[in-house]
Structures are given as structure tokens and as C-alpha cells.
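pinging the channel bc i need a second pair of eyes. not urgent but kinda urgent?? the chain im working w is below, pasted from the shared doc
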Amino acid sequence: MQLMTKHSEEGNINGLGWIDAQTKKFDLQKPFKVPHMGWNNVTHKKDSVLAKELNNEASFYFVHSYYVSCNVTQDILFETQYGHDFVSGFQKENIYGVQFHPEKSHRAGLQLMQNFIAA
């Protein structure tokens, strides 16, 4: 997901630029720890084949110190709250990216991967 943005603070380098967004490092106060690690709810921001049959507050597993900030709100597919709202998934045409780990996210992750294959 982060590689597809225009720029990343991780190494202060340019990304592929497929999504009009930046990858930023979390700068959070206690009690929030970085890296963000563990289960967190994901909220749908738009309809998508990727979100088919997922609860609007499905729980996914995260491990990350950076997050994506989209400049185009129409690209935002999922959001998550951890110290502040951040983009946890985007979709622009047939380009998808998620911040969480679907392979570690049990039923919700399996459903998301099945949706991706069917897309």
C-alpha cells in the first residue's frame, strides 16, 4: 500500500505515485504505541467489491509505524482509528491497497482475499 503513494517519510523517498497520497510516520501521544500492533476495527468509506460481505466494523490485524494520507477522498476505501483516523485501505479503479494484514485477520481477512480474487 505504502509503495503506491507519491512519497514516503520512511527513508524520505518517492513512491510509485499510483495513488495521490503520502506515507507518514505516526506521531502519537500516550497511551498509543508505535508501531501500531494488534486488532482494530476497519470502517467502510465507500462501496467496493473488496468490502463485499464484510461487516462495516470488521476487525483486522495491524503491524505498522507509518500510515497513508490520501489527497483524494474518493480513493479512500477503509479508515481506522488509532490516535486519529487514518486510511487503512484505498481503491482507485483496479488498484487496491490495505494497511492491515489480511493473511493474519482470520475470517474477515479470508473474505477480503476471496473478494480480491473475484474482482
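so The two ends are 18 Å apart (CA to CA). and Strands lie at 7-8, 13-14, 21-25, 36-44, 57-64, 66-70, 76-81, 85-92, 95-98. — does that match what u expected or am i reading it wrong
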